[in-house]
Amino acid sequence: MNSTKEKFPHVMNSDEFVSKLTSNANWFSGVPDSVFKKIFPKLDPFYLASRENHSVAMGFGASLAGMKPAILIQNSGLGLSLDVLFGLHQLYGVGILLIISNRGELDWEEIQHKLWGERTLDLLKLCEVTIFDFGKFGPDAIEKAANIAFNENKISAVIIHRGNIDE
């Protein structure tokens, strides 16, 4: 399989994605990622970070201020983020919504993404993060994950595959 559409039937344009996301979260941060390049300019407030762990840490602070943070990162940034996820969010029972682009799944993607594409879901499960696959649940994945993050105060993630949203 060489295309996301073959593997994952749910596809959404960036405006619809932003509408669904902003109806479930109200504070946003992330790092540059081609999957989210049409999304970032439409989020308000949006705080660009140089590293994924910085976004996750800022999301913790936003939670303490009563906000509902959504952090948009590449799967390769999970490694950097684990300390903040465990040391702040899990330790203090503060939920966060992660929107993770699962890079490296498709044949044509860059080689540096391949291992992450193969191991992202296993890593999230090992870390006891509740996962909702956009390819399976479509836009409902965002609402389901936000409910876990903000009502149950747990870390939850929506996995976005290349092509699920227009790039």
Structure write-up:
The chain has 167 residues and is an alpha/beta fold. The chain has a single domain, classed as 3-Layer(aba) Sandwich (Rossmann fold). It contains 7 helices and 6 strands, in the order ααββαβαβαβααβ. It has helices spanning 4-7, 14-22, 52-64, 78-92, 114-126, 134-137, 140-151; strands at 27-30, 46-48, 69-74, 96-101, 130-133, 155-160. It has a 6-stranded parallel beta sheet, sandwiched between helices. α4 (78-92) links the parallel β3 and β4. 44% of the residues are buried.
- C-alpha-based Rg, rounded: 14 Å
The number of E-state strands comes to: 6
The portion of residues assigned to helices is 40-55%
- Name the CATH homologous superfamily: Thiamin diphosphate (ThDP)-binding fold, Pyr/PP domains
The fraction of residues in strands falls at 15-25%
Rough outline:
globular
CATH class: Alpha Beta
What attributes characterize this protein structure?
167 residues; Rossmann fold; six-stranded parallel β-sheet; 7 helices; 17% strand
Itemize the secondary structure elements and their pairings.
Layout: H1 4-7, H2 14-22, E1 27-30, E2 46-48, H3 52-64, E3 69-74, H4 78-92, E4 96-101, H5 114-126, E5 130-133, H6 134-137, H7 140-151, E6 155-160
Parallel strand pairs: 1-2, 1-3, 3-4, 4-6, 5-6
What's the quick description here?
With 167 residues, the chain is α/β, with parallel strands linked by helices. The protein has helices at residues 4-7, 14-22, 52-64, 78-92, 114-126, 134-137, 140-151, and strands at residues 27-30, 46-48, 69-74, 96-101, 130-133, 155-160.
